[in-house]
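Section 5: illustrative case.
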């Protein structure tokens, strides 16, 4: 008898959604990717250039271990799938360590995480002469092209101009998705809608916020940095005739219109940090340079959110029941939408983290052996927020 094929719908054709499609392709799951836009990477994943490198803490934490493993996973996929020749990029990221505290933090990080020189080493950034952490395989790359190439490799059926408006578990176990293009059924649903997560009533409770970011596109100069430089903000290496200077951060005012004043501030801060870099640059007023505004989705603890989606409508939130649980020293039991996964909250690091996050998500949904230690997975699951809210009596 022919084995029944499992089907999945992935919502959102940003870097998160296409990474999920790739993880599903590895498992031969028939997949439909839908997006309300007319093409992939129209929102956060659509910047012309971004940077890829891991986030490190002085001592090992779940956060830094995840980020380092995600970076290594990114590099393995990059090599295995030949992304090197498909995605415009330049290798090498310098992370400036001007202050003693940051030098102390990162030099310890190299030791505590046992990071080898070919991944990161202390070095002087050549343009400024400032001591730095150098990631030789870190990258300036085009997020839009990365997203598009991963999509081509994952090769799901795609439906653009198709918005998910509602979904529910139906009686036969399938998930019914209502879209602007009609009804679709699937065995598994993966949600990766970026900052538009709040339009979905089932994920609205998640403590995620929309954070505005503005970048500046600078035409390539004759004398310029060969590698990406991070100094709080970042200036990428030139790719296809441009460099990107980014990125501003505003969680309060979210308008889509570019802010000329913000461009000027980004520019002035770079001039202050890297005066030798810009000494011979011939540029018009920074206010006149092309800009792009987009939105990060950031979680309360700044970590990604991935895993099976809790079904909070099924939690007994009566004070009486909750008090009874606490009195007996019991943990709250979390009910789930069994075959619905979420990947969101990628904040400022979606390019580095998405592929690994998607692999962890998909393998956990199919109950495969753990990809990461339980401790790390727990720090990523949406459950962590529910448990925190529960402990603080914020649910009742
Ligand atoms: C200014 C700025 C600079 C950044 N720089 C870097 C960087 O240098 N390095 C780095 O690693 N990260 C960087 N990031 C972060 C990174 O871009 C994001 O983490 C990443 O792009 C998020 O991807 P995503 O797929 O979750 O979201 P998105 O790319 O926003 O994708 C979400 C998709 O879901 C679709 N969608 C939403 N709702 C629905 C629905 N109901 N039905 C159908 N489709 C729907 C949207 O149309 C969209 O295509 C930056 C972010 C910003 C804002």
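Designed sequence:
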């Amino acid at each position: 008898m022919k084995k029944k094929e499992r089907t999945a719908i992935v919502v959102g054709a940003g870097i998160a959604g296409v990474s999920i499609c790739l993880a599903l392709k590895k498992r031969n799951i028939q997949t439909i990717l839908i997006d309300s836009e007319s093409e992939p990477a129209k929102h956060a994943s659509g910047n012309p250039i971004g940077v890829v490198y891991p986030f490190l803490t002085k001592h090992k934490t779940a956060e830094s271990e995840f980020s380092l493993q995600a970076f290594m996973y990114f590099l393995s996929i990059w090599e295995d799938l030949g992304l090197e020749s498909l995605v415009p990029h330049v290798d090498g990221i310098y992370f400036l360590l001007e202050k003693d505290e940051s030098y102390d933090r990162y030099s310890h990080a190299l030791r505590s995480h046992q990071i080898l020189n070919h991944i990161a080493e202390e070095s002087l950034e050549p343009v400024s002469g400032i001591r730095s952490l150098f990631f030789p395989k870190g990258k300036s790359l085009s997020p839009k092209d990365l997203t598009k190439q991963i999509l081509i490799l994952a090769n799901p059926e795609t439906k653009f101009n198709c918005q998910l408006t509602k979904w529910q578990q139906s009686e036969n176990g399938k998930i019914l998705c209502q879209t602007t293009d009609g009804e679709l059924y699937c065995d598994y649903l993966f949600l990766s809608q970026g900052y538009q997560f709040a339009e979905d009533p089932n994920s609205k409770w998640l403590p995620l916020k929309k954070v505005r970011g503005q970048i500046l596109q600078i035409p390539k100069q004759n004398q310029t940095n060969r590698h990406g430089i991070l100094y709080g903000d970042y200036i990428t290496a030139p790719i296809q005739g441009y460099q990107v200077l980014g990125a501003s951060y505003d969680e309060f005012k979210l308008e889509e219109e570019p802010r000329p004043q913000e461009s000027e501030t980004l520019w002035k801060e770079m001039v202050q940090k890297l005066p030798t870099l810009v000494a011979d640059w011939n540029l018009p007023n920074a206010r006149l340079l092309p800009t792009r505004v987009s939105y990060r989705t950031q979680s309360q603890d700044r970590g990604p959110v991935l895993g099976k989606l809790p079904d909070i409508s099924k939690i007994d939130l009566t004070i009486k029941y909750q008090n009874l649980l606490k009195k007996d020293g019991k943990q709250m039991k979390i009910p789930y939408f069994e075959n619905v996964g979420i990947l969101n909250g990628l904040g400022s690091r979606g390019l580095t983290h998405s592929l690994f996050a998607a692999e962890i998500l998909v393998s956990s949904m199919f109950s495969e052996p753990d990809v990461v230690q339980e401790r790390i997975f727990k720090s990523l699951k949406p459950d962590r927020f529910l448990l925190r809210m529960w402990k603080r009596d914020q649910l009742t």
